[in-house]
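hey so i finaly got around to running the thing on Glycosidases from Alistipes shahii WAL 8301. pasting the sequence first so u can double check i didnt mess up the copy paste, my clipboard has been acting weird all day
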Amino acid sequence: MNVRQLTPEGTLRAATSKLPFLKDLGVDAVWLMPVYPIGEAGRKGSLGSYYSIRDYCAVNPELGTMADFDAFVAEAHRLGMRVLLDWVANHTARDARWIAEKPASWYERDAAGRPAVPWDWSDTAKLNYADRDVWRAQADAMEFWLTQHDVDGFRCDMAMLVPIEFWNETSLRLRRVKPDLFMLAEAEERNLFEEGAFDACYAWRMHHLMNDVARQRTRVTALRDYIYADRDDYPDSAMRLAFTSNHDENSWNGSEFSRLGDAREIMAVFTFVVPRGLPLIYTGQEIGYDHSFAFFDRDPIPHYEANAFTGFYRRLTALRHDNPALAAGERGGAMTEIRNNAEDCLMTLVRETADNRVVAVMNLSPYAIHADYYTGIYAGMYTDAMTGEPYELRGRVEEDMAPWSYRILCN
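ok and heres what it spat out for the 3d tokens, dont ask me to read them lol
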């Protein structure tokens, strides 16, 4: 949730009023982009970057008060949704409280003794994880939000830029406080899961492959190869955040409409059925808002109401809720492929548990194809997840499929 852009007011109080809409959509958890005060030194644009943080234990007054934040969390919990905070452990603002109040050793320094700038993020200052006091202060601040403000977990920004030993130690400490803590890493290194620091990580490689398939820079065989390699690269419990958009992609590379074109719908479906996948919906997607948000300024959605895109995502969330075979991580069903005659375009996969089966037939190409395959033991009566109508999957399927068309069948 991009609180700044979700509503004309751009406040937590206004965002709270949208939670029943998201609950009705089928959302289980809301990841809030950073809600902390933003630095003024080197500020970009009129409002600055959400990720240039002055104080880890306060709320940006432009968004409201701590009481407004608590009310947001309370309403989300009343509706049965969890709340994740965006956590930026790698750096702070250049005028952060810690720069003024803490020892110089808390920050990496340049030749002139100034806090170092990571990458080209000129409005930020790089923390020094050689100083163990930084570790403790970060963990203290995270625990503050868990114990004092009842958040349920964290999405950890650029997690690979911080030592994995910090995440292992901090996660263990936080899970003692909150055993059902959820930790999502914006990274995909394998060591994120070795000692249980994280529950999920980004599927960046898959996302880029989806963009490439949509633009025909590569074929669906590359996505197939990715799925099999990913299965071997991570423990069974690891969940992978699957998305067609997020705040970075939307602002810097364009909306899913501009990046994926006619493949937008089928790629969204793919994120809901792919093994390990934990699907993400970014602010605006739930109403089909075709716009690339300004990152450093106010750029709110002008008109927000349910439409056909809302219905599309509601069907996808119902598909996940109603079919245990599609659960993320080790709870979900493994993937089996049905071989077909057009595997450079057509993906025919099955995910199955003891009492649930989902068959996904997806023409991930801009070509009309004549599909031909044998279903074997998977033949039988199903329900079409997108229409609700019964569907008989015959022993041999031979049919014409339009570009970017799909059928998702549940039993």
